[in-house]
Amino acid sequence: MKKTINSDAAPAAIGAYSQAIQAGDSIYISGQIPLMPDTMDVVSETFSDQAHQVFNNLAAIAEAAHSSLAAAVKLTVYLTDLANFAELNDVMAEYIDAPYPARAAVQVSALPKGVKIEVDAILYTG
User: Fold this and answer.
1) pLDDT tens across 16-43, in order?
2) Regarding the domain with residue range 2-124, which homologous superfamily does it belong to in the CATH classification?
């Protein structure tokens, strides 16, 4: 059984997808980009601000699912510049404590709205 998860504290979907889907003990959060939920504008041009907004968006969706980022078991991070990898680690450590989830970080040529980062997540609540 699938359940749709929505949060007004995170940006609305900008395409044909849900913010998150819960299936059994797993929550699948769609890729989040650094949009401010109230305006749907990109938070700023800096990587740090964008990364913080992405993790705030992920946390808001996790909370709407009665969970938290502490339940994350897998993250996929899309970066337009791998030179931001160290800063990504610093920002992520502010939102998720060890033991850290499994993670992939890949460089891509472009992301929606010209942002520098997108992250999706899988949470386990069992």
Assistant:
1) 999 999 999 999 999 999 999 999 999 9
2) RutC-like (3.30.1330.40)
